[in-house]
Amino acid sequence: MSEAVTHSAPAPLARPELLASLDPLLREWLPRQRWFAGKGRPVTGFSLVAAVELLPSTAPLGLIHLLVRAHQPLSAAHGASAQPGDCYQLLIGVREALPPHLAPALIGHPRQGPLAGRTVYEALYDPRPAGVLLEALRSGARLGALRFERDPRQDIREDLVPRLVTAEQSNSSIVYGDTFILKLLRRIVPGINPDLELPLALAREGCPRVPAPAAWMVADLDAETHVLGVLQPFVQGAADGWELALRELAKGEDFTAEARALGRATAEVHTALARALPTVTLGHHQTAPLVDTMTGRLETTAQAVPALRPYVPGLRTAFEALADLSAEGHTWTAQRIHGDLHLGQCLRSADGRWSLIDFEGEPSKPLAERRMPQPPARDVAGMLRSFDYAAHALPPAGGADRAGGSGSPAAGWAAACRAAYCAGYAEAGGTDPRTDPVLLRAFETDKAVYEVLYEARHRPDWLPVPLAAVRRLAAPS
What we know:
The protein has helices at residues 16-29, 127-139, 194-204, 241-250, 256-276, 284-304, 312-327, 367-370, 377-391, 409-429, 437-458, 464-474; strands at residues 45-55, 62-73, 82-95, 106-108, 119-122, 142-143, 146-150, 162-164, 172-176, 180-184, 187-188, 215-221, 224-233, 239-240, 280-282, 332-334, 346-348, 354-356. Helix content is 38%, strand content 20%. It is globular, with a radius of gyration of 24 Å. The protein is of the alpha+beta class. It has twelve helices and 18 strands. The chain folds into two domains: 16-233, no CATH class; 239-474, Alpha-Beta Complex (Aminoglycoside 3'-phosphotransferase, Chain: A, domain 2). It has a seven-stranded antiparallel β-sheet, covered by helices on one side.
């Protein structure tokens, strides 16, 4: 049975003493989290956005929902002034002491304020606080600034056992009894998050390729809605597309049938989104800023990564060709898309059916940009690049270059998957992405340039993978 959740609006814990009690602990704990976006810059303080007791902090088990804004300098340079930064969602458990199985969740022991003498920890590790969230979603609770809503057509049982998904993610997820999965957003921004908006729109269209939200959690602050979490059906026995591709590749198995089916699934989602939400036409005036952004990203990346510089003239032609085509009067249709599509955002169920998940878009981009209509070719290009990455993800044999050559088995595997994916897309969507090679090349080039900068900064051993694509994309057509 879940912990009881009151439906009355409790007094918010807006006392300065609460934040002062947690501040020194959070400064150490928060930067260590996978989902913390401000790595490399010290946290100099916090400001409290909202605090609500979901369970009384004075009880044997307390649960506090916090929205806090981390203050960090704009750069890592010593003496740079601190600025109010990202807002984070935290769920703080409060106990006298932690049982051994919760030791990895420890945040610390406050020395002052209302939590002095208690132990505070990451509550999502604990099944009891996780059950409180499910009960709030199931019952449609309203707690302070927090509002829990649900789709009354979906049954949410109260006896589902929660478990935290421990894989590294940019957010946090809890699975309830292999029936539902709750995705809790960590970086919170005002506005409707596409991770709720788009699945709801697809559910209205009856699109079966995306699990329909069963419930969601929002905060109403300063007359704006902030999406905090989404509860969706859990696809039981599903295989992550990335892991599935690597498994088949390691066995030497053909993956083109799966790639083709995934192309059909992508086209079905794009078609449903085009029906559900407005589309726009991109003419010359709309395409020019897009080309400028791509060209600017290329120039900036070439300054940061010398290995890219020899290919800049060839890569620039991809963007110039798109600009020339738009100047000649060619137009494209833009619509809402996934925004960050790759194999890891796809699930194949036990019956072989593909689903698309995680419609948040690239979290590093502003929310307004993530919600802008874009050509579907952007999603297609992201998946094509993902096949390249899967092909070269296994450790290279004999110390060979991870990227291999254009005639290597890995390159052949990727090329076959790319072709099958586009063919499947054409079957369900009516248009083969390869029939607009200028647009597809521009988006794929832009994605490869982004990957070059990311790998150079975070995974230098992987840099040969996007550079192999760069060589191909920079070559004369």
